[in-house]
Amino acid sequence: MELYHVLNRGVDKRTLFLDDKDRARFVHDMWEFNDIEDAKNVWYRAPQYSGLRNHYMEKERIIDLHAWCIMGNHYHLLISERVDGGLTKFIRRLNVGYANYFNERYKRKGTLFQGRSKKILINTDPHFLHILNYIHSNPLDFSRDGKRWREKKLPSATDALKNLEKYKWSSYLDYTGTHNFPSVLTTELFSDVFKDYKKEILSFLQSNEARTIKEYQLEY
Known about the structure:
- By secondary structure, the chain is of the alpha+beta class.
- It folds into 2 domains: about 5-120, Transposase IS200-like (Alpha-Beta Plaits), CATH 3.30.70; about 125-210, no CATH class.
- About 40% of the residues lie in helices and about 10% in strands.
- The chain is built from 9 helices and 4 strands.
- The chain has helices at about 20-30, 85-105, 125-135, 145-150, 155-165, 170-175, 190-195, 195-205, 210; strands at about 5-10, 65-70, 75-80, 120.
- A 4-stranded antiparallel beta sheet has the order 2-3-1-4.
- The radius of gyration is 17 Å and the shape is globular.
- InterPro entries: Transposase_17, Transposase_17_sf.
């Protein structure tokens, strides 16, 4: 199994998600487009639809989504393929589908994302052990206390953790016992590695690694 960190941002660093309707739409699309069959029901992709389906149908997925986080102008996904070519197919569908929705909702034309999504192969043990924490800690850079945390000015990592617990738009809550968006996520790989994930990420936030990781990052 090959594991990839996939990330992209808005063209010219533009905001991709203007409100919770946009964010919910992107989460829905992560589920909708993870299917060996093409999405056929256009009602679910209509611009006025803002949430997730209440009743998910069984289907054959093309990727496993192990972690995700969406921010104002970019996203992070952690993906492995279930079928050959599944990663490329999924990302193409996701980017095109969300861009079509966004452009129709906001009456705009043209490219939404900054080119092709960046794909980084997770090929070392340290990278594997840190990547889940890195993705989930991303909201700290955009929180009120984010700069203070990076500069080691927060009283404790517990203060940083409280910010993550308030942020709905990532897979962090699903890893720490709160059912947030479990239908889009595959948790078994990292749940087997980290038996107590909250303890694990707290340790990460207390470490220098959390403040110095550069190779995974976009210039926001």
